[in-house]
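User: Structure please.
Assistant: Input sequence and predicted structure:
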Amino acid sequence: MKKFLLLLLLYFPLITLAQLRNGLVTDKTGEPIDGVTIVLHHADSTVAVQISKNGLFSFQQPFIGNYVLTLKAVGYKDMSKAIGLPMDSVTIMMISDDKTLDQVTVSASKPLIVRKIDRVIFNVENSIVASGATVWDALGRAPGVQTRFDSGVTANNKGVVIYMDDKPIRLSGEDLAAYLRSLPSDNIAKIEIMANPTAKYDAQGGAVINIISKKPKGDGFNIVLSAGYTQSTYSSYNPSMVFNYRKDKLNVYGSYGYSRRKKDHTENEYVIFDSPENYSDWRNDKSGIRSGNANSYKIGADYNLSSKQVIGILVNGYNGNNSRPNQVLTTIVNNYKPLPDSILHTQNVSNGKVYQYSFNLNYKIKLDTNGRNINVDVDYVPYQNKNSQQVDTYGTLANGNLLSDNYHIFTPSNQNIDIYSGKLDYTDKFWKKWTFESGLKYSSIRTRNNFDFYNNQATGPELIPNRSDRFEYAENVSAIYASISGDVGNWSFEGGFRGEYTRTNGQSMVLNTNNQNNYFKLFPTLFVAYKMNKDHEINLTYNSRINRPEYWRLNPFKSYTSPYTYLEGNPALQPAFIYNGELGYTYKQQYNISFYLRRVVDYFSNITVQDNGSKLFYDTQRNLDLSQETGFSASFPIQAASWWEINNYAQGSYRQEKSGYLQARYDYHVWGIYLSSNHAFTLNKAQGLKAEISAWYSSPTIQGIYKLARLYDVSAGMSKSLLKGKGTLRLAVNDIFYGNAYRIDVNYENQRNGFYEQNDTRSATLSFSYRLGGNPTAARKRTSASEEEKKRTQ
């Protein structure tokens, strides 16, 4: 607090000399309105234009005399107000206009992509190729975001924590992908990508992606119905609904989505075991189906205790089941022979069920009309994952005779996670242009994992105790943060610190290991922007963050997929620390270019290990020394015509990965480029007929010892407004040239392996949505207490 007061004293003379003319735009409840276009007129001339940020705007030029302000915003009536300048401040209340909302929905005047100083906003509802499918599909359409073959997500080459309406999703890996595939993208208003999150957000993860859902707004009962049908090799479908009831002080809202997904899956894998005694080439041809059913639902209520107090409850739920049958044909060639020595036939069937619930209690009080408020959240998140896997392998020699050693195992597992968390946030505003935020948070996580290993004998299953395990992991994080943001003349500033004290304890009963960690880390954040004039702005960003391993990475249990391959975690895995610096330039608030440096210390990743003597091949986790990247990113939208909007994005990088690994070291360097271009066409505005083409390309890159091949995607779609603008019909074709297939190779010391995987991404989707009642808008943002913990579960 002393530093904060000192900062205020230093800036006070500058603020006084600046003689600020401040304005605030609110709705009838007193909530600030973001994105309002404010135009200052004198006589018949326009002298200045502003866009409100958190409801605030200002005109700092030495205007004197009588002027007129005109204000325009989506969903509100246009209005004018006469003012006399100079003046200290003005507060303007805008009135909502449901009719205007309907008209705007048809014309879709909102930009597809909006770039701000701290985030990029992708308006999903305005994208044809992103709408009508699932949230997972829409996520892959957001600028700079990639969804990977292993169900991972990156933004600007950074690992991410994914939030839904400012609340983290407590899933990771395949569970996260399955959950997002259960949510129809028609329920989503926009996706916010924050490459450098502020101190208010948990320090976990390199970047934050916040998915903002639609929520019908207006008195009475409102509902949005939608359904999508996708055809790839097999068919999938996903109906959904969003509803809202608002009357007087009470607002009740919710949603439900169901998905039935069935996808083809093929993979070609190779492992070359090369030793002085023998050379052996193993080729695995895998084919299978990825299918599953999922239900996702949400119900919440807000009640206004008074004009300044609101209390709310929110319950989210997700349950799903999945099935992954695989047929694997392994051809083994020894010592460069022209014909195989033996062939292994493996049937691997994995079935799983996931249950997750999230209970949130929220209380918010406005202490005054200047923006001073307190927000309290309490959360409880229970999670359960049940999985079973059966592997049956038999082999034949080159002459067709059966091998004597057959392999039949059954491995059921059960994971239970309980997350308790609470947080308190305080916000204060000074001179209407400075904001101070601070808060406290505590979270407690306990995960219990049971894994059993059975040999399937003719007489029945036989438990193998030394291959089974009981693993328990506990984590407690206490956090405190403070930040200040505001403007002084042409300078904009936001800076803060977040301190987190972490205690962890992981115990394996079978291995008799106990891994403990206790550490405190301080994470600074700084944003500085200098506006040279109305067209040119320079900005500087710095922050540091932490990446804690997901819980499944810590589990030492060995999950066998064949007699010679398995996966295992590493209970000794340590968190990675991320340091980001960025210098950027913005022209006319539209065109951006930035140069960045990112350094990750103790970077962890999955790695493959092959034993060339025993012919074992497994995947495990470990900390690597360093991952460092320098590069640039640029965005340049083009309004080619009144009916043609283009959004272009480019990112170039020079990446270095180095570490000790096995008995040697590697030091890899690679240049990379990521390009994306989206073209939106208004073919007939009166009839609501639109089209869209999007494309992206990612050059070859590296991840630890892995070398990843190029990827690309071209998709297109059309949409038509129906039923007086309340209905929308969309047709989209995704990954037309099937370029979104993964190839990874390892060629390091005596490690030579890789795979090529296709996930049935080429598809066509037909969808329809219909709105009853008011117009859907973004849901009320409410940051719950349970932050990044749920994202790390599986």
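The helical segments are 2-18, 98-107, 135-139, 173-181, 551-554.
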